[in-house]
Design brief:
The complex is a heterodimer of chains A (about 290) and B (about 325). Helices cover about 70% and strands about 0% of the residues of chain A. Chain A contains eleven helices and two strands; from the N terminus they run αααββαααααααα. With about 325 residues, chain B is of the alpha/beta class. In chain B, the strands form two sheets. In chain B, strands 6-7-8-3-9-10-12-11 form an eight-stranded mixed β-sheet, with helices on both faces. Chain B has a four-stranded antiparallel β-sheet with strand order 2-1-4-5. Helices cover about 30% and strands about 25% of the residues of chain B. The chains are: A mainly alpha (about 290), B alpha/beta (about 325). At the A-B interface, α8 and α9 of A face α2 and α4 of B.
């Protein structure tokens, strides 16, 4: 069986694997996400259990053997948290929020865009002008305002991220769906008694997926960094559940006193994750771009 | 015999900001089961709009303002949306020029065929597969089974058009409107498909309206021919007669413009001027500005004159019969 005959998904995967860098980035993403999900297995301490934190071990450098009897590989923060554990737990929250927000924004934004394109007329104008209006504000500003109103917490943060990111999906889905709507097979389907649902979900939506997937990979990385930004500014999660952004913020004040590790290591973890996701999304974009098709 | 399709006085106008474009302005057509009617004309003559009007696929600002389209005796003009949708695809189908546009690139052929079938009938999986295979086999595809599970991009242009044709045949419609379905294909494939269509039309008793600008296609395929110019039919009759002895000056001009066996370097014949804008068409014969024979009598629009033997021409000064 030649590659041309294989199913689109298999062809996509084998093409993806040809790019070494993207493959490497993808494995980094998998490792980080895997480690984050399985964090309790790889960490000596539960950083969210305040009862187990030992203040006497606070701000110790990497390699210090604490009173708990284990090595603090990356040192400890101002509350005596083992940084390695805190980073993995923080990644866990970041990935969770990033993926959830990305997925919800994908569904909500994609649906709005496709519905707008399909319905046309006033509904389209209403939805798309609202999206345009929202896109004219900086994402961070909107996320800040919403999370300031809703307060701290996981779902509040997710709502803030979805509300500030769905517009990108709506815009993209609308553009693709409008182009799709004009195609003859859509007109043909509409001119027979097929239900609108079948036309939207079987004909229009699958053809809008490539650009939406590209936006999704970029927006998940954005959601993670936005979450970190909000946490850094103290608007994200409660202090007892530090995510990466808050760990960086907490260590910030000790930077000049030589205790670099409290900020630097969470920062490196965050950069690795976002960079890897971006490398993967670059390759996905190149592959799904019809103009670059080989 | 009852006509499969009878079009009377069809007028489709487009109400644009610059004025009313009379794309189709009084077209009469009649076609019997199993026959092929060639609808010929240059770009902008209104032949495609006629085809779309027959299926009721005219979108605003366009509208069918007058006339009737009868399919097996059923009036199609003025049908409400749902009733029209129940007719389209089942009793009348259309095939377009570009099969890359008519087939959905992300769905396999079998999915698209089952959707076309389920749109009108509720069928079991087995009978859907059976009918899809039968339809694909009918259009001369060498391996219908493989074709069924293929995506459109895995098929060649000719195969894609055959798939489009077999989808049109799924419900055994009475009439298929073909809007230049072979224009995008190379000549050898074009010939094969024309042959298949001719055979299918006769076998299944489907009436074909074949819209094209290519006289060679019409001459080998159509039983009857209707020549359109500026939204009206200017000449009609049995294909052989019309092509051998045209009675309208426009038809003559079209035939003379076909590059024949001239000497290389010799200037090709062409009709002077171009088709007039359809907004505010001046009164009289639309062809008079490009016609060598035009005179004062052409200032009033001539009716189609019955010239006997099923022929007619819209001309005050018809060419001599041979």
């Amino acid at each position: 069986m030649t590659r041309r005959d294989a199913s689109p998904f298999i062809r996509f995967c084998s093409e993806f694997a040809e790019n070494r860098l993207a493959l490497f980035a993808f494995s980094v993403v998998v490792i980080i996400v895997g480690a984050a999900i399985l964090a309790p297995l790889f960490t000596p301490q539960d950083p969210y259990d305040i009862g187990k934190l030992i203040l006497g071990d606070a701000r110790r450098p990497p390699g210090y053997v604490g009173r708990g009897g284990y090595v603090h590989l990356l040192g400890t923060d101002a509350q005596g948290r083992d940084l390695w554990s805190a980073i993995l737990y923080g990644l866990r929250i970041s990935v969770q929020i990033g993926l959830t927000a990305g997925a919800v924004a994908f569904v909500v934004g994609g649906a709005l865009g496709v519905v707008a394109a399909f319905a046309g007329g006033r509904i389209e104008a209403l939805i798309m002008r609202f999206v345009d209006l929202q896109l004219s504000f900086p994402t961070i500003l909107l996320a800040l305002v919403i999370s300031a109103i809703l307060g701290q917490g996981k779902w509040q943060l997710t709502v803030a991220l979805v509300a500030s990111q769905y517009a990108y999906f709506a815009r993209t889905a609308h553009g693709a769906a409008v182009a799709e709507r004009a195609k003859e097979y859509v007109e043909a389907a509409l001119s027979t008694p097929l239900s609108s649902g079948v036309v939207v979900f079987r004909h229009i939506l699958p053809n809008c997926m490539p650009p939406l997937i590209v936006v999704a990979t970029v927006q998940i990385a954005n959601a993670i960094s936005l979450e970190a930004t909000l946490s850094f500014l103290g608007l994200g999660l409660p202090v007892t559940h530090p995510s990466l952004g808050m760990l960086i913020a907490n260590g910030f004040q000790y930077m000049l006193s030589g205790r670099y590790w409290i900020s630097i290591y969470p920062g490196i973890a965050l950069i690795m994750l976002i960079l890897a996701i971006n490398l993967v999304s670059d390759q996905v974009r190149d592959q799904l771009n019809p103009r670059l098709q080989r | 015999m009852m006509a499969a399709l009878e079009v009377r006085g069809l007028k489709t106008h487009f109400f644009t900001r610059n004025g009313v474009v009379k794309a189709v302005d009084g077209v009469d057509l009649r076609i019997e089961p199993g026959r092929v009617l060639g609808l010929v004309g240059e770009s902008g003559s209104g032949k495609s709009v006629t085809g779309l009007s027959i299926l009721g696929l005219i979108d605003p600002p366009g509208r069918i303002v007058e006339g009737s389209v009868k399919l097996d005796g059923q009036e199609l003009v003025g049908l409400d949306r749902d009733a029209a949708r129940r007719v389209r695809g089942r009793k009348i189908a259309m095939i377009f020029q570009d099969p890359m546009m008519t087939l959905n690139p992300v769905l396999r052929v079998d999915t698209q065929m089952s959707m076309a079938l389920r749109a009108h009938e509720s069928l079991s999986k087995d009978s859907i597969r059976e009918r899809s295979l039968a339809a694909l086999g009918r259009v001369g595809l060498p391996a219908p089974e493989q074709c069924l599970t293929a995506y459109p991009h895995q098929l060649s242009g000719g195969m894609r058009q055959r798939v489009a044709i077999s989808i049109a045949l799924l419900h055994s419609p009475s009439v298929i409107v073909c809007d230049e379905p072979t224009t995008a294909l190379d000549v050898s494939i074009q010939g094969q498909i024309l042959q298949e269509m001719q055979r299918l039309g006769a076998e299944l008793g489907v009436a074909l309206v074949w819209i094209t600008h290519d006289l060679a296609v019409v001459s080998s395929l159509a039983h009857d021919i209707a020549v359109m110019y500026a939204g009206r039919i200017v000449e009609h009759g049995p294909t052989e007669d019309v092509l051998a002895h045209p009675r309208h000056h426009y038809t003559r001009g079209l035939l003379d413009s076909v590059p024949g066996e001239g000497t290389p370097g010799e200037k090709l014949a062409q009709i002077p001027g171009s088709i007039p804008a359809l907004i505010d068409l001046p009164p009289g014969c639309a062809f008079k500005a490009r016609c060598g024979r035009a005179d004062g009598a052409c200032e009033t629009m001539p009716e189609i004159a019955d010239l006997g033997q099923g022929r007619g021409a819209r001309c005050v000064h018809p060419l001599e019969a041979a």
